[in-house]
Design a protein that fits this description.
Number of helices: 3
Structural class: mainly alpha
Order of helices and strands: HHH
Helix content: over 70%
Oligomer: single chain
Radius of gyration: 29 Å
Mean pLDDT: 80
């Protein structure tokens, strides 16, 4: 009977160790995948920031063109309306890209890894109590 209990205990300990190793490997895989996602997000953010800079520059040029045409024509010609429409389109695109940039920056904080780690810590705390 003692041999059965020690064999059962050894099996339980072995399963526990394998489970913990498996969990650790899974967390490292998750961290690796999220690191790749973070790199991709940084590349995307860099590209979007470049586009935002170009849109800001073009909006500024168009705004200056609108003011110039306003001073020349006193609001009586169609180039002013065209420039204003182009300025509005650039500004709307700028807002869209800024919103998208704000949305994707959350990927840089490794949300799934943090959730997994905090869940594991909470489970340990709950089991200790």
């Amino acid at each position: 009977m003692t041999k059965k209990h020690s064999a059962g205990l050894i099996t339980i300990i072995k399963d526990l160790i394998e489970t913990q190793i498996s969990k650790t490997i899974d967390v490292f895989r998750l961290a690796q995948l999220e690191a790749k996602l973070a790199v991709q997000t940084l590349v995307n953010m860099t590209f979007i920031i470049f586009i935002i800079i170009l849109l800001i520059i073009s909006s500024w040029i168009l705004l200056n063109a609108c003011v110039f045409l306003l001073l020349i024509t006193f609001l009586t010609s169609s180039p002013l309306i065209s420039s204003s429409i182009l300025f509005a389109c650039n500004f709307i695109l700028l807002l869209v890209f800024v919103f998208y940039l704000y949305k994707i920056r959350e990927n840089l904080f490794f949300p799934a890894t943090r959730k997994q780690i905090f869940t594991s810590k909470k489970q340990k705390r709950d089991s200790n109590e």
